[in-house]
Specification:
This protein is an alpha+beta fold. Helices cover about 50% and strands about 20% of the residues. The radius of gyration is 29 Å and the shape is elongated.
């Protein structure tokens, strides 16, 4: 049965249900989000946001000025999203969740099958007598070992992505006032009121 072959899922409960609740299998979701937030002091707000991220049990993944990528526990993702947006005016936001349950289950089955095949080959290797047979078995063992390591690496990556959601936040300062409409204006307000053309007529 799949339930017997499946490896234990990450502790994160992205589905919002307790394990076994309603007899349904917990779904494994990779959550990502993006936010552009307009604030008066982007650098100061970025520092304040990182403090809140640490309080939520998350950490900074990368930063470029007031543009940050943070990782937070999946169960605190909604809270982190709200915290970031609460610093100013949200200009753009997006969220997505990718269901990787089937891939995670499949990886567990493939790893289990590869481990059993490797055990059988080890038994064959102990009984092999001809050098040719020994070399063939050893080559297959190396291939299986590399495949197991690749599959386990992928499963570990998925588990990490499920356990920690990713949030990209850009804090930006408000845009400056719009330029005067019509012909090229002057930075002196009184000239704009009188009109550049009328002033030139006096010369």
């Amino acid at each position: 049965a799949l339930a017997d072959a499946r490896p234990s899922p990450p502790a994160s409960k992205s589905s919002g249900e307790a394990p076994g609740e309603s007899g349904r299998e917990e779904r494994l979701l990779i959550q990502r989000g993006e936010l552009d937030v307009e604030v008066a002091r982007p650098d100061d707000v970025a520092k304040a946001f990182l403090v809140r991220v640490k309080e939520l049990g998350g950490h900074l993944a990368s930063q470029r000025g007031a543009s940050l990528v943070v990782r937070v526990p999946a169960e605190r993702f909604d809270e982190a999203f709200a915290v970031a947006g609460g610093f100013g005016r949200v200009l753009r936001e997006s969220r997505e969740a990718s269901d990787v349950t089937e891939e995670f289950v499949d990886l567990g089955i493939r790893i289990d099958t590869a481990l059993k095949a490797r055990d059988r080959l080890l038994g064959v290797l102990q009984k092999a007598e001809r050098i040719e047979d020994i070399l063939k078995v050893e080559a297959e063992l190396r291939r299986l070992t590399e495949e197991i390591e690749r599959l386990e690496g992928r499963r570990k990556f998925l588990a990490d992505q499920v356990a920690l959601a990713t949030l990209e936040v850009l804090f930006r300062a408000p845009d400056g006032p719009p330029p005067p409409s019509g012909p090229a204006g002057s930075r002196f307000a009184w000239i704009n009121q009188v009109g550049v053309e009328s002033l030139m007529e006096n010369f």
